[in-house]
Design goal:
Strand order of the largest sheet: 3-2-1-4-5-6-7
Radius of gyration: 18 Å
Oligomer: single chain
CATH class: Alpha Beta
Strand content: 5-15%
CATH superfamily: NAD(P)-binding Rossmann-like Domain
Distance between the termini: 39 Å
Structural class: alpha/beta
Number of helices: 7
Number of domains: 1
Shape: globular
CATH architecture: 3-Layer(aba) Sandwich
Length: 255
């Protein structure tokens, strides 16, 4: 059982790894023995993470990536595979949001969010899945969705729609690539404290949000470790097309 989540000799690619959850995901996978390819637009932050992982005895490689750009996607994946070997695990984590009332969201806002959160997930998942199929090795793809793909809140309409799309993409792609021994699953985080939103949860509005979560707390990034390692490892070898909510019970609460 201690070896259930062992990722020794596996190669993982984490997008959006320059900060936040992506940075955490890369660290956790490296700690379990995976060689980690980390990709994002901010290469300075990636270099610092590579140094951190290698200093702890791990193996990592950084690549510049714009998930909206098909050429950038292909180049980054090729660079990581050339450096580390064929990708076994993809964590599709890149994401963005624009917060404003729905009637003030513009077509440019819509495109900016959908291009990263949905088009980017599609481009990454398809390119990695093709390579897994052609190598005959199989693998696992983990898409980072959100509970807002399944419930509603105000001021983030394009984000919520994009995450609903990620959930359907996960299930539809899982159906088609299962024959190649490729598993496609998703994690749907609830409200997780990060450097971007931590101040909000000290406000009255943030306190009101916490009261609507059955566990009466905001999640920590470490709360996602279990779901990540489950889906990345052989512990989930009979799971595909699944969406795991990690939200303190938020989805089963009243709106």
């Amino acid at each position: 059982m201690q070896q259930l989540h062992d990722l020794t000799d596996k190669v993982a690619l984490v997008t959006g790894a320059s900060s936040g959850l992506g940075r955490r995901f890369a660290r956790v996978l490296a700690q379990q023995g995976a060689a980690v390819g980390i990709a994002a637009r901010r290469t300075d932050a990636l270099d610092a993470l590579v140094n951190e992982i290698t200093a702890l005895g791990g193996k990592a490689f950084a690549a510049k990536l714009d998930v909206c750009d098909e050429r950038s996607v292909k180049d980054a994946i090729a660079a990581i595979e050339n450096a580390l070997g064929s990708i076994d695990i993809l964590v599709n984590n890149s994401g963005t949001s624009i917060t404003k009332p729905a009637l003030e969201q513009t077509s440019a806002d819509w495109d900016a969010v959908i291009n990263v959160n949905l088009r980017g997930v599609f481009l990454m998942a398809n390119e990695v899945a093709r390579r897994m199929r052609d190598a005959g090795s199989g693998g696992t793809i983990i898409n980072i969705a959100s509970i807002l793909g399944e419930r509603q809140t105000g001021f983030v309409l394009p984000y919520a729609v994009s995450k609903a799309g990620v959930i359907q993409l996960t299930k539809s792609l899982a159906l088609e690539v299962a024959r190649y021994n490729i598993r496609v699953n998703a994690i749907a985080p609830g409200y997780i404290a990060t450097e971007i939103n931590s101040e909000f949860f000290t406000t009255d509005a943030g306190a009101a949000m916490i009261k609507r979560i059955p566990q009466r707390r905001i999640g920590a990034d470490s709360d996602l470790d279990g779901a990540l390692l489950l889906l990345a490892s052989n512990a989930s070898q009979f799971m595909t097309g699944s969406v795991i909510a990690v939200d303190g019970g938020h989805l089963v609460s009243a709106l």
